[in-house]
Fold this protein.
Amino acid sequence: MSAPLLFHFDAGTLVLTGDADLLQALPNVLLDPRTNAYRAEARHYRAIVEALRQQKIDFTDAARDYQPLVCKLLDPRTPFPHQKEAMTTWWNGGGRGVVVLPTGTGKTFVALLAIAHVGRPTLVITPTIPLMNQWYGELLKAFAACGVAKEAATPQGAVGLLGGGYYDFQPLTVTTYDSAYIHLERWGNKFGLIVFDECHHLPSPSYQFAAVGAIAPYRLGLTATPERADGREAIYPELIGPIVYRREIKQLAGDFLAEYRVVRIDVELTPEDKDRYTKARTTYRDFVQARGISMGSPQGWQRFIQETCRHPEGRAAFQAYREQKRLSVAAPAKINLLDELLHRHALDRSIIFTYDNASVYQIARRFLVPAITHQTKTRERQVILERFHKGEYNVVVTSQVLNEGVDVPAANVGIILSGTGSVREHVQRLGRLLRKLGDKQALLYEVVTRDTAEEYTSERRRQHDAYG
């Protein structure tokens, strides 16, 4: 009689014991020569269990460290059609996959519907501490009673936090990608469903281990912008599942998002700045071309930095790059135009977006408006946004920290003074303005310095049907 088949969780993998011929026939199971044991990445847990059940092979599952969960969703909202469709399509696809919805259309509520439907302990993974705290509040409100099946539900809920100074695992737990990766060995077999919020972060070389090393058979990815500059969205199917549902801004604008307009305004460099820009741009471009560097490729910037460190003229090329960048993104004409726009929209709620923190602080001092950067403490950021929502502040200036995961429904005017060529960044910035609030009409200004590389950057980042 062959040895009984047994598997257990070990540091992000499954270790299997039993008949060697049987183990070799299971999906994604390989012999680990280091320990002479059969092993599979934990993400293959579902495929292995399904194969054993289909073949009617008895086995002992010592890997799973969770039980079904009773979670009654107390949120009184009726799902919008696209939310119901998204959840249903995801579930019909096996409870695996990515849902793509614009900012402000209720991706979080789709996840709450999924958590209640699946009935398994759930880990929500977010990119930042503020988002982690935001999700914590949403889960507490949505699931005031949540307990293990056949046991009395706990009246205060059961929501844990992992990260930001907290280390508390509960049937419903929220964490960040950083903490999920660091503590994978401790949680990888404790959850049946993982929600990857802003899942475009997941395919990075380290973060992806949060998916590879977890047994969770159910997986839901949420994002408004699934594409990545490095093309690694191609690995969503193996980490989460394929894109199962997608709706774009234009499909939902009006009914579920605010109506909006996008206006591009060009400004000119002064003759002196234009001369300095041309000289700096020529020095930078000559160096790049001489070294055969393609700055449009995913490795372009890294190669440029490496080459500037290896060659005597590299320092001058790097300084020239910074000079031409500074002149285009911080042209004096932009500040003059900003003054005009802020007067024009004095009664509106405006968010000013810039490329760098230096510009943020310059604008904050010039116009006496609150600034939010990565250096702004969480509590201070929350106070600024609350006062902005109440109308105590009419203007906020920021660099990139408000690009995703922040709810500012009162904002109806956005002014992009500078930014990257990323389509994702541009769509996220537009998304800050589109949350429905009464009959709000949103307006996004894009300010571009004429006859500079900003014109090319503008064309790149507008390659989305929201700008068609």
